[in-house]
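Something for you to look into today, if you have time. Just paste the record in under my message, thanks.
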Amino acid sequence: MLPIINDIKKPIKLEMSLFEHKFKESLKSNVSLLDKIMYYIINRKGKQMRPMFVFLSAKLFGTFDEKTYRAASMIELLHTATLVHDDVIDEANFRRGFFSINALWKNKISVLVGDFLLSKGLLLAVKNKEFDLLEIMSETVQDMSEGELLQIEKARTLDITEDIYFNIIRQKTATLIAACCASGASSVGQNKKIVQKMRLFGEKAGIAFQIKDDLFDYTQSLLIGKPTAIDIREQKMTLPLIYTLNVVKPSIKKHIINIVKNYYRNDKKVAEVIKIVKEHGGLEYAKKIMHEYHKEAISILNDFEQNEANNSLQLLLDYVVNRKK
């Protein structure tokens, strides 16, 4: 684990430790197969950035109680459900260097596991009559589904502008981090105006996060465990590529689109697209936009009390745009 993650967690170290236990409890089932799969999921969890966003957003306004833990569990359940479903959609056999759920238990069980995780998250809110959290979660599920479908629709035609791209990543990726920050603030009784402001902060952080992921597609794959140009191979139009298509000559644009449409499995052709993107400033442009969103997110935080949690949120934002994987 990078030292910066430990620095970020300082104000919530105890809470994150307690959260792990509470999250495990939220995954319990009467079905032994489910328990076996849940155990597998728990033991391959990532850096838990999303619970960090929840806890730090709550602690920005003081101390918190069980409602914040439930908010973090709901977010993590939703996030895990989407990862399980995404691996089925993408036909992916690996996740974070481990076999995916669908690789081990096949698609039918994977879809049901994802549904189970999602229902667990929603029931946490219903059973505790926390309808503010339920509303945040339900809107997030809707946004993520629409974003995924919009991306699939546009991948068929490769007809995507920057505006459409930002709509996709706002719904598909940024909405979950926005939900983290909104639910964290809501869990400690902040009013709708503050909750909305924290949602906007999370959205901007999430967009910066996704652009950073886009940039990884054009860098060495050894550090990140992700094959170079996987987005191109999946015919996903990301910011560096969209920018390049807007600035190159019509003949080069036609050539790039032809490769992405018809030769996306050809290593030599894909490498040619990467070279064109790099030569025409696609990476520099994406980095510039990413840093603009980072700056806008920081400016929102500057409106709040400058405490330990605020400092950690700023560190977390810095980590988002500077991470190596």
